[in-house]
Structure prediction request, 751 residues.
Amino acid sequence: MADLASLTKHEGKVPPGLKSNYDVDFVVHYKIPLPATERAEAEAAFIQLIQALADVGFATEVRNGGKSSLLVFTKIASNKLLTSQVYRYRVQDWLYGVRTAAPNQDLTKYFDDEPVTEAERLRLAYLLITKAKNEGGAGITPKVGHWKHVASVFPLHDHSFNRQWIKQWSTKYYLDDADLNQIRDKFGERVAFYFAFLQSYFAFLLFPAVFGLGAWLVLGQFSWFYAVVNSLWSVVFFEHWKTKEVDLAVQWGVRGVSKIQHPRPQFEFEREAQDPVTGEIVKVYSPFKRLARQLLQVPFALACVVVLGGLIVSCFAIEIFITEVYTGPFKQYLTFLPTVLLTIFMPTLSTLLTKLAERLTAIENYETQDAHQASFVQKIFVLNFITSYSPIFLTAFIYVPFGKILVPYLDVFQLTAQKFTTEGKPLPTKDWEMNPDRLTKQVIYFTVTAQIVNFATEVIVPYVKRKVFKAVEDVQTEIAEKKNGEDRGPKDVPEEAEFLSRVRNEAQLDEYDVTVDYREMVIQFGYLSLFSVIWPLTACSFLVNNWIEARSDAMKIAISSQRPIPWRADSIGPWLNALGFLSWLGSVTSAALVFLFNRGGDGHETSESHPNGSPWNISGWALLLSIIFAEHLYLVVQIVVRNVVAKLDNPGLQKEKAERFAMRKKVLEQTFGDQHVQEESSGPGMTGGEKITREALEEEAREASRSVSGTGSPEQMFWLRQRGASETIHIGRGLISEVVASNETKAQKKV
Ligand SMILES: [Ca+2]
Prediction:
């Protein structure tokens, strides 16, 4: 903990860059619906929003958000409320075993020893905004149900930090612990874990990169020696990361936080029942019903295989026909046909299936965010597994060994094409011969070209898109201004104008989703583990790519995303399983590839032993492979069964859970007195002292305004424009009617 304290010490003072954030904790981006009919409802919801925020102890200020929206700035109004919240959550951490020592009862001394970090403050503020009302929060769920007009709730970027961060990283070869700790302090452990994983993986890639280069020069492709070493490396990396993950969690003081679950607001319970052990009222949803819904994952996986697999197989077949059989006119153009088909259909189908995966996960109705996320990640992994690896599987295990039998069936294309030609003449074709370079070329495509394409779609495309949108918008505004002869931009107070335009900009950015980045890296690891025996230089390509990846992901967070909410995490979560699975599958595919493509024994394939598309060459190894596959199939079944069984709570575990719950409740009661009996409920005010009410907060704000009147710092002035929730509501309603009215006049002008 000494480490943690020293890290957080300097956070107590506000660094100069943060000053420009006007002490804002969170910004609520509130969209105003344009139809005048919805005005009353939007206004009512806005009033409820401000009231809900004020009730849990937030000071609020409202400003014009541009593009018919409002920006509601919030900050935890009093230091007392903040420290009480922090203290409460730290006690909870201790009860869950996340902290080894109980927080000191002497609060002043305690917060001197271990000050509140920025990430901690933001996390607690966010929980206070989003937690359900009966759990002491404001119950605001962005985009969901009653709060559908709340587009997002986001913290503001610390721009001076971001600038320094990007500058620092782009001039460094290697990221050390201090760099990761910085990420952790600013963006929370969840994001820090991603970068820690990326860094570990990058460091581990050095070995296969050097070894791969050597193998490529000396051993050639499909060397059994390379396969064995590569499989061993995968296992060592996986096991190393498992230990490293625990080590980091301990260092960061978050070991076990995954046990503290955040309830999902969308969870629907069947009934409320009394817990037999604790007597607590708990929300119940039948685990068997859930299991039945979880079983829908099987048809989902099958649908993915059929839809995506079907598309890939068709494009694959068309490609082989055009490039390897067809010899007629326009061949050079037709070669692009499968690529065009894939680029059109693949993203569309992937998006559709991802939506379906989201839907399925939602109806599985999980109680907690973590369980929901884990289940979603599982489905995403299945989807990406198929799209990423099936083309190579097809070539290696279908095209090469069975080509001689299957390719003649591609005459289907010839017959189809013949119907459309006027003469009905057969298409010019040649006898098929297997293309021995096909497999290698494919692997190079996925491990080099596709990585570059990924980089472009991840960083460059969104950047250009935003620039273009902005330019178009500027032109539109200019035209509108000329036409109407009036200034349509929001009228800001000059000293705030720059700040507000920056916030409006941040409100338009995407939310950062660390899942996307994990997916990219885990899938990449799969190529190395599964297929690098085909092309041993794979790791060299990844080494270069991942150096850039870490920097471009940092830029993605700093420039093109809203600042992430600093969630905690004690591991990379469900991706660990995916990693273990790929590392294991790698040993199977590598062995199969070596058996199939290299039977020379000395690592140098000879032309007569190399498979050439005729299955008659397959003999002994087929038997061996069947045995390996059968044995591994057994392992897969075992893992699936184990997971299913583990999901069904058994009575012993339930009892233990209930007893722990009772213990925590008792300690909390003793610590916080009678008024806060429920463990998770933590309204403002505690330790039996005076209760923090909205009136008291407003009074505090008024008093502060008297003392600074007109001479305060920009921050103080910012928060004093609207004194108390009622003024925020008043101004906000005014802004809403302005927007609705200007929309109406615009509509009339058009008519
Ligand atoms: Ca990335």
In short: Residues 438-484 form the longest helix (47 residues). The chain has a mean pLDDT of 79.
